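worker-3 :: picked choline-phosphate cytidylyltransferase
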Amino acid sequence: MVGSQKYGTEEEAQETPRFQRKTLTAPAPFADETSCQCQAPHEKLTIAQARLGTPVDRPVRVYADGIFDLFHSGHARALMQAKTLFPNSYLLVGVCSDDLTHKFKGFTVMNETERYEALRHCRYVDEVIRDAPWTLTPEFLEKHKIDFVAHDDIPYSSAGSDDVYKHIKEAGMFVPTQRTEGISTSDIITRIVRDYDVYARRNLQRGYTAKELNVSFINEKKYRFQNQVDKMKEKVKNVEEKSKEFVYKVEEKSHDLIQKWEEKSREFIGNFLELFGPDGAWKQMFQERSGRMLQAFSPRQSPNSSPTRGRSPSRSPSPPWVFNKASPPSSPKAASASLSSMSEGDEDEK
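worker-3 :: C-alpha cells ->
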C-alpha cells in the first residue's frame, strides 16, 4: 500500500515536494500545489489488474468527491474504503466550492475553506482537489490521471441527471463503497434544528449575543429566564445531595454512638453486678466487717498459763465490772450471764 510511503523524518518531508509526503504529520497537499507524480504513460487499468497491485511502477489513482460538510465519521469511513480498495493506491479527494454547492444542493454549515482544511487532515487522503466539478468530465479525469472513481452505489440524481456517475459506471471506472448508516450531515443538522432552543440557551450563557444567534428579543428573555430556572434547579439539586450526604453521615455517627453506648452500658451493668450482686465483692466485704465487729465484742480466751490464775485468794477480788480474763464470755449473752453470777456471788459474800 501507499501508506508505506508516508513514513520518514520531518527533514526529509521538508526537503522533498509536498506531494511526496513521508510522514503522517504533514497535511495532504492541494492539487494545484503539485503535479501528477505518474512518470510512466497513463495506461487504462482494469479492476482485476488494480486488485493485483499492478502496474508496479505507479500507484492506482482513486478519486472520491463530495461536499463533506460537517466532516464526520461517515465521511472518514468512506475515504478509508476508497483508500484500501487496492493494494497500492493514491487517493485524490475532490471538494465542491460554495457557489457550486449552494446552486445544486443548498446552503452549507461550513464554508469551502473549512471543508478543504478538514479533508487535508484526514489520514486517508493523499491529495485534495479544490473547486471540484459537480459532474466528472473526460477532460477532468485525464488532467488528474484518474483510474477509478469511488462512491456509494446509490444513484445520485442531481444537475438534471438521474445518476451523475452513470457514464463513469459505463466506462468501467466506478468502484462502489459501503455507506455508513446512522450518520450523515443531514442527520446532524436535523439534531441541531430539533434541539435549537437548547443550543441557543447554551450559547447565550457562554456569551454569544442574540443578534449573533438570530434570536428575537422575546426569545432571548425567555431563554435567559429558562437559564435562571435551570440554575435554581441545579442549586436545589446540589442542596438535596449535600443534605442526603449530611443525613448519611449523621446516621453513621449515630449508629457508632449507639453501639458505643451499648458497649459502655453492658460494661457498667457487669461492673455493678460484680460489686453488688449476690456473690459480689460488696457482700464479701460486709461479711468480713461483720465478723470483725463480732470478734471485737467477744475477744478470744487467754492461755491457761495466764498470771491472773496464780494470784492469791487473799488479795482483794476484782471489781464486779471487770471481766475475768481467764474465762472470757464467748458471746454477749454469756457476758451478761457472767455479770449476773458475779453479782449473786457478791451478795452471798455480804
